[in-house]
Structures are given as structure tokens and as C-alpha cells.
Amino acid sequence: MRRWQRRLIAATGSAAAALGLVMLPATEAHATTCTTYFVSSSSGSDSNDGCTSSTPWRTLTNVNSTTFTAGNQIQFQAGGSWTGELQPHGSGSSGSPIVISSYGSGAAPILNGGGAAATILLTDQQYWTIQNLEITNPASSAAVRSGIQLENDTSGTFNGIHIVNNNIHDVKGLWTNSAGVQPSRSSGIAFDVTDSNTTSAWNDVLLQGNTLTRTDAGGIYIGSLQGLNHNINTNNVVIDGNTITDAGGNDIVCVFCASPVIQNNVATDNGYRYSGAGMWSGWTTNAVFQNNEVARQYRSFVDGQAFDIDNNTSGTVIQYNWSHDNPFGFTEWCCSSGFAAKTSVIRYNISQNDGASNAIFPTMSGVDSGTTAQVYNNTIYMPRGNNGKITDGTPNSTVTFSNNIIYKLGTGGYSNTRTTWTHNLFYGDHPSTEPSDSAKITSDPLFVKPGGGSAGRASAAAYKLRSGSPAFGAGAVIANNGSQDYFGNTVSSSTAPNIGAYNGAAVSGPTATPGGYWPLDEGSGTATADISGGSNNGTLQAGASWTTGKTGAGAISLSGASNSWVDVPTTAVDTSGSYSVSAWVKPSSLTGNQTYASIDGNAISPFYLQLTSGTFAFTVRSSDSTSATWKQVTGGTPATGTWYHLTGVYDNSAHTIALYVNGTLQGTTAFSSPWKATGHTTIGRAKWNGSNTDFASAAIDDVRMTPRALNAREAYALGTGAAGYYQLDEGSGQTFSNLLGNTVDGYREGNTTWAGSGKVGGDSLAFDGSAGTLGVIPASVIDTGQSYSAGAWVKLNSVSGGNQTFASLVGFKVSPFYLQLSGGKFTFVTRAADTNNSTATIVTATSSASTGTWYHVLGVYDSGAQTISLYVNGTLQGSASFSSPWTARGATVIGAGTYNQGPVDFTNGQIDNVHFYNRVLSTSEIQTLAAG
User: Fold this and answer.
1) What stretch of H or E contains 926?
2) Nearest C-alpha neighbor of 250 from the set 265, 237, 261
3) Across the strands, what pairs with 316?
């Protein structure tokens, strides 16, 4: 069977016994006697005539046995609830549809299918409007079922189906690979045409303003069970303004459609139980996907991209869309030569942090022979930790990339066969596979706030251009360019456009906000970015230069001269409240006072993270005066040429200052007279008596200023060089953060909740073991091709049954490691290659785990010793030889692993304080982590 016919593959369960739509027994249909029919579950009676709100019907029985005619309305009372399948008869006419809606005030009426094949079923009917209802179809087990199901079993066309402003949720549908059919009878809203002829179709389909939540096997599907070999004759389809959340597989699909418009939809957190792409079409001409938002799309086996230009399509346009945090990519083409995508245009889209587990544009092999594919004026941003590729696969015809901005900080590369590139801007990481482009630009595009997009298309304004951007007017003129950009600005047909998705004039940068994190990895130029989101960006002064860093790609080298420092022209933290400041430093000299980080007051600095008298110190002053009293904590015996991590903390609640060196507390002392400095933030000097002073002679890396007091655990994570530290203490919301700030936030999916308590700190994540319940960090937190350590606190609800994985990374087929429970015992498993049948090396704990007990579980891979080891509660359980590591460039997962390209081994319990290191931890470090 060809790949496309496997579009949606079940994560669990078995195929339904019969895949045809289950029909209710035929009932005798009666002609209508009224224009509007009322149904009340509280005050109605089936012996009433149903013709007024005073004489309503009570159940669905009379509705299902009546043949309605043009202009009739079926109104369910607000606040009412009905269980069973609604299957009314009859058809409306053009301009006079039959309307199913509600009457009265209060909550929308609830139609609960109760596990039926569909909650609302219309078979061979037309001119119906379904609006303002709450529709659900729950069941104890998944089966082929829909929320709203439309069937065309004829060879003709049915018209005028409008489904508007409904709340459709908890539809327990199913789809399996073995079924060999499409989910046209198992989605939140499903349209199915018969495969017994090639002419059956729909016309005038409007799906607008609906909210779909937890619908399986997907959100909206228009097509047939076979999904192939049919006329492209479903016309006038508009899918507009729908919100789809936690659909099991696909979000929106249109098959056999001529010129459908899919626009203004928001699809988030879908695809975690079944496979499928976000929005796509197959066997379709001239589809337009525009002004949509797709975020956090996933997959259980194949696809998982935000958009898909599928087989036997032509004239597809994907434009003005906001795509973010989709680990498997922004847009794919499907499938293979002769059975693939034909002409297509992808333009004026903005992609933020897509492709971490795959590529921005994967499966280019889906571009058919003898066709054209144009990709132009898109803006692509891939932050640190996103090591996905930009392009992958070999197209069968040339794909042209023009006027795109590719701002890439990860390590992924490009597949360039049969691609041409012109007038693109490449910034950040430049792999050896970066394509040639005679008009290439490689300088900073000067976005307003790279990485600053969030929920909502408007947030993509973070990717407008500031004054001085090299992208202004640097693009090539494209024929038939759509005439406007992502933001609605005009794009001329004759004047050179900007590069990227923004064609407007320069805009101002954002106002700086508290907090700063300067990785100092730029390696060239004089600008250094604050990637915390605070927009406190800095500039290297003339005597500062770049050097090799402790973390990441680079650091700054300071000579101790008066022009050798970094200026940040904003105030990164409010020093009258709690704050923390930290940095990696490698002293070149131990003489005199050398300040590594500070903020300017008028006369002096409020704090000095520094070297003084040959030791490290955190010094604070009680007012902006050289005569002010001071307090100081010192510690450490530094040597030149060695990296040290320093953290200074002021706690305004405890009225204390503290100094940590390499994560170890050196001491605390009382301090209760903070004051607010409002000057520049500085790296490599301080201020005294109104003048610059204490110039550092050192390499400095990874400087942070945090507008709160870090606790000892946080200082330990920073000071021991953790690559990722997820405390999981947020307690609310969907996202959870990495203390290190070097990756994007993770997010909860499926039934993952906040537990309300944890082992360390105030909270943890709770998982129920169900498919699709996991936490996803769309970044590779560690490099699994070298030494690493991964650990977590876990408390299990069950220790029997299948495997439960607590932490892993995503490879293409499998995870490189699984920190997990297996056979009732904790295990650390590594795989020798990214294939299903690769050799597994396993270390198992000596004792069985119990439910309801917190355990610290940690796995280590030592590349020097070529071993893996497992620790439980700080105690070594065993080691095994392992010499075949490989680097997974995919997302990091909490609560599940990856096998056969999809999530598996879901945890049933709580997980807290997950930590990752790109090195082997010492026994004492492991025991410190295990002490909580």
C-alpha cells in the first residue's frame, strides 16, 4: 500500500470490526407540519406537536422520524441535553436550508452521541445548516465514529452544507493502518463520498467558527475511505475561523476539492495519538491555505508537519501562515515521483522553532517530476537547540528558494540536490551544506525580537525588521507575487521587495524588560544578543574580542584595558529587589579588582561580581556613593586558565547576599540596604566615583541576570554546567521552562497535568499512561553522540504492565536512550543505531520499584570508558559496555520514548526535576542530585 494511504495510523487499539458507517435501523419518516420544531429535554413531550416552544418534543425520536423540508428549523433548547444519534431526514433548497440550532438563553444544547457512529448523521442530503450546538461522542473505547458525519452514497453532488459555531469535543474515534482507508468516517467533522464511482461530490461547504477539542481520529476531514482515483469535483469549500485543539491526528484535510480556501484557523496540540499532518489536501487543485496558525503538531508514525502538499495536487498556495513549535516541520511535499505534489507556492509565511525532530521542509522527494515548486519571502527562525535541517530529501523537479530569511542557531544542514537559491539571507550557524547563492546575505536581519512570537498570528510581529536591516529592498522581484506580505503590506510587481515575510518600513525595537542572558556565542562582529526575551542586547567595545567558550560556541576575551568590556545600554535587573547574577569566567590574571558583571549607578555600581585580592567575591553597596557601607561574600582559590562559574544572589525577603562558586555555596551575609541603579549593564567592568573601573582580564561566557533570587538547587545546576534543568514547578499553564534558558520552553500534551506537589520544589508533572500524554521540549537538550547524563525524580502509580519512559530524545525511528521502568525495575537503555532493530544495551536496577515512592533515577553514558551506567537514589546499580552512540537531533521528551517513529512507553506517575548534562557526572554530583 502506498504511503499516502497510511496517512493516519493508530497509536493503540485494533481496527473496528466493521469499517462502514454503522446505521440505525430505518424508521418511518413523517412529513413536516410546522416550519420550526422545538425540542426540550426538560419540559418537552413526544406527544406534543413540537411546533412551538410551549409544545416541544422531548427526545430525538420524533426528530429522527420526520422528513424535513426547505426552510424548516429544528431548535434544541439551550441548557438541554440529549443522548443518541441525531439522524433527521429530508433536504432543504438553495436559499432555504434546513437549520439545526438552538433557542432560549443559557448554555448551548448538548447532543451526545453516546458512542454512536455519529452524533449527527446526514446521508444523501443537502442544504443543511448546523449551528450553535455542543456536540460530543464519548465512549469507553475507541471505534470508528464521528461528531458530525455527512455521507454521499450517490454519483451526484450534494450542496449547501454549512456547519457554523459549534463546540465539538471528546469524539472517541479510531483509525488503524490495517484498515487501509482514510478517516472520512472518523473525525470531529467528516464528509465521506462513496468510492463506488468517481463523480460523487459536495458543493458549497462552509465550516466556520467551530471549536473542536479532543476529536479522534482528527479534526475536519473531507474525502473518501479510499482517498484515491476520483474526480476533483468538490467545489466551493471554505473552512474558516475554526479552532482545533488536541485532535488525535490530522487537523484539516480536503481531498477531491477544487479551489478550496482554508483560512483563519487555529490548530494547536494535535497529532499525539494518530499520525497525520496539520492542514493538507490531496487529489486537489488550487487549494489556498492562508492566515492560519499551527502549533505543536505531532505524529504517532508519519507526517506531523504543520502543512502538507500531498499527492496529485496542483496549484497549491500556502501563504500568510504562522507556524511554530512543530517538531516535524513546517511544510512537506508528498509522496514520490508519479504520485506526488505538482505545482506549488509557499510564500510570506513565518516559521518559529519548527523542524526540531526533522526539517523545516522535509520529504522534498514529494515534489513530482516535470513540475515547479516556489518557496519565497518566508521568514524562518530556529533557536539554539533546534538542530533540525532546513531542507531534506531530493525533489524530482527543481525547487526554487528566493528572498527567504533563514535565521538558524542550531546545527542542522541542508539537502541541496535539485534546488536553486537566490537573494536569501542566511544568519547564525553556517553549515558546510549551506547552499550557494550569488546574492546571499549573511548579516543579522535585525528582527524586532527573534524568538518572541507566541500564540496568535499578531505575535509574529516579532519578525518585522528594525532600522538598518540588510533585508530592506534586497530581494528579487517575483512574478505573480500575491501583491501583499504576511502583514498586509503591499509587495510591488516591479520594485525589489524586502527579503523575508515583512515588506513594510523599519519599526522600533522592543522596550527592554527585566532579565538578561548573554550566551556570547556570536563569534564575530560587535553585537551580542540577550536571548532571555528581555531585549537587553549588548555591544563589544573596541578592546573586546571573541574566543573559545566554556558553553556553546564562543565567549568574549577581555584584556583588562579600559576599552575591553561589553556595554548593555539598558538596566537588566532592578537592584532594589531580589536578583541574581552569574557568569563563567576564566581569569588571565589574578591581580587587583576585576569585575565580571555589574550595573552602573551614577557614582558607583550597586553590586560587583568580581575577583578581589586573589579570590572571588560578591560585593554590594548600600547607596550610590563612594562612602556607602558595603557587604561582601568571598570564596574560591582561582587559578589562571581555568573556568569557574560564579553566582551572586541578593534575596530581598531574607535580606541576605550569597556567593556560589561552581555551584557550591561559599557563604551568606546579611544585607538590607539595596538601591536601584538605572544605568547601563556591563560585562567586564564596574563603576566607581563616576568612572569606569575594575576592568577584567579574563574570558567570560554565559552571563545571566535574573530578577529573582536563585535557590541553591538552581545555583548548583548553573554551577555544574547543566545543559537542561526542568524544575517543573510552574503549577499552571501549558509550558515549563529550562532554568538554563538555552532552549525554548517545553509543553504539556494529552492528559498531562500539574500534580500540585513534587519531590523537589512545589510541583511536578502528572502522567496517566495514556497514549499521547507526555511533555515535549522542541529542542535537543543534549548531544547523545558524546558523554551525557540524564536524570529525574519519579513516583509511579503502577509498576506493572509495559515500559514507562521518564526521559528521552527523539530520533527518526527510535530514541538514542530510554531512562525508564521495564519489568518492574528501573533501567537505562541505549540503542546502537536509529533503527527499530538496532541492538539495545540495558542496565537494570538491582531491586524492584514500588508505587507511591519517590526515586531519583539517572543514566550516564561515558564516551571515554565506552560504558553506560544506571544510578537509583545516588547508588550505582550497574554498568555495561556501549560503543555505538549516535546523535539524535530531535526533540527532548519527558514521560515517553520513541519507537517506530512515534511516541511509546508512556509514564503513569509523577516526574519532577529533570536534569541533563553534556558530560559524565561524578559520584558526588550524582549523590547531591539524589539528595533532593
Assistant:
1) helix 923-930
2) 265
3) 344
For the segment 865-892, what is each residue's pLDDT rounded down to a tens digit? 999 999 999 999 999 999 999 999 999 9
CA distance 865 to 34: 84
CA-based nearest residue to 271, from 783, 750, 853: 750
Q: 474 CB contacts (<8 Å, ≥6 apart)?
A: 423, 425, 439, 441, 496, 498, 499
Q: What angle do CA 363, 364, 365 make, to 5 degrees?
A: 85
Contact status, residue 234 vs residue 205, Cβ threshold 8 Å: yes
Give residue-wise pLDDT tens across range 298-351. 998 889 999 999 999 999 999 999 999 999 999 999 998 888 999 999 999 999
Among candidates 909, 767, 912, 768, which has minimal Cα distance to 852?
909
pLDDT digits (tens, 9 = 90+) for 634-664: 999 999 999 999 999 999 999 999 999 999 9
> Residues 88-104: pLDDT tens digits?
999 999 999 999 999 99
Burial class (CB in 10 A: 0-12, 13-18, 19+), 795: buried
Q: Is 3 helix (H, G, I), strand (E, B) or coil?
A: helix
> Could you write out the DSSP letters of every residue in 352-407?
ES--TTSEEE--GGGBPTT--EEEES-EEEE-TT---EEE-S--SS-EEEES-EEE
What's the angle, vertex CA 21, arms to CA 19 and CA 24, rounded to 5? 135
Distance CA 413, CA 92 (A): 56
Q: What is the mean pLDDT of residues 571-575?
A: 98
Q: Report whether 53 contacts 74 (CB < 8 A).
A: no
What is the predicted pLDDT for the residue at 552? 85
Coil/strand/helix, residue 64: helix
DSSP annotation of 930 reads H
Look at residues 153, 267, 288, 291 and name the one whose alpha carbon lies nearest to residue 218: 267
SS3 content of the chain, % helix, strand, coil (to 5): 5, 40, 55
Pairwise CA distance, residues 409 & 381, whole Å:
8
Strand partners, 687: 692
Q: Give burial (CB, 10 Å; 0-12/13-18/19+) of 547.
A: middle
Average per-residue pLDDT for the chain: 95
How far are the Cα atoms of 21, 140, 141, 188 from residue 172, in angstroms, in the given order?
15, 8, 7, 9
Q: Are 602 and 624 in contact (CB under 8 A)?
A: yes
Cα-Cα-Cα-Cα dihedral of 443, 444, 446, 452, to 10°? 150
Considering the chain, what percentage of its residues have pLDDT values greater than 70? 97
Give Rg (Cα) of the chain.
30
- CA dist 390 and 427 (Å) reads 13
Q: How many CB atoms lie within 10 A of CB 488?
A: 9
Do residues 72 and 100 touch, judged by C-beta distance below 8 A? no
Selection from 793, 817, 795 nearest residue 882 by Cα: 817
Quote the cell numbers at residue 380.
524562518
265, 279 contact by CB (below 8 A): yes
State whether residue 6 is helix, strand or coil: helix
pLDDT at residue 343 in the model: 97
Confidence of residue 28 (pLDDT cuts 50, 70, 90): low
C-alpha cell at 345: 507556492
CB atoms within 10 A of CB 780: 29
- Which pTM does this prediction carry? 0.94
Q: What is the 3-state secondary structure (H, E, C) of 705-759?
A: EECCCCCHHHHHHHHCCCCEEECCCCCCCCEECCCCCCCCCEEEECCCEECCCCC
Tell the residue number behind the cell numbers 504562522, with chain if given: 322
CB 535 within 8 A of CB 555: no
Q: Look at residue 29 in the predicted model and tell me its pLDDT.
A: 66
Q: Say whether pLDDT at 14 is over 80.
A: no
For residue 669, the one-letter residue type is T
pLDDT at 25 over 60: no
